[in-house]
Amino acid sequence: MAFPKHRLAASVAVFNEHNEILLVKNWKRGWEFPGGYVENGESIQEAAIREVKEEAGIEIHIIKLCGVIQDIKNSRCTVLFLGTPIRGKVTCGDDALDAGFFSIEDALQMVKWKTYKERIQKCLNETEHPFFIES
Asked: Which residues, 6 or more positions from 41, have their beta carbon under 8 angstroms from its beta carbon?
């Protein structure tokens, strides 16, 4: 029997003290949460923290788990967290074209992919945490 191949990703909704959300601009998808794939030997939380550092230049603290999104067709699971900045200045890294903190209203206008807008809304609604979505 062949073992299935699944990809595991981590993504973080990082909010600063002004209740602004961190977005990074991807060359293909446009504005989104920072995040990416978990590497071998790395915990999901470690991956989330690393991805924010790589894409936006800041260190964060994970506050809590928001939920999990399973993309069945593409064999991918994304774990979403809430985080807060603890150190550093936002600068775009090698994996991003731009990065910054934006108001929720502006962020929802800037994010063009429907699924990424829905992720922002789900992470904002703490009464639904933790959520699990299969698509």
From this structure: none
Q: Please tell me the pTM assigned to this model.
A: 0.92
In this predicted model, what pLDDT tens digit does every residue of 34-58 receive, in sequence order?
999 999 999 999 999 999 999 999 9
Q: Which of 55, 44, 86, 80 is nearest to 65 (CA)?
A: 80
48-63 burial: b if 16+ Cβ within 10 Å, else e: bbbbbbebbbbebebe
**CA nearest neighbour of 118 among 50, 83, 75, 71:** 71
For 26, phi then psi, to 5°, come to: -90, 145
Domains annotated on the chain, with CATH: 7-134 (3.90.79.10)
Query: CA–CA separation, 40 vs 47, rounded Å?
Result: 10
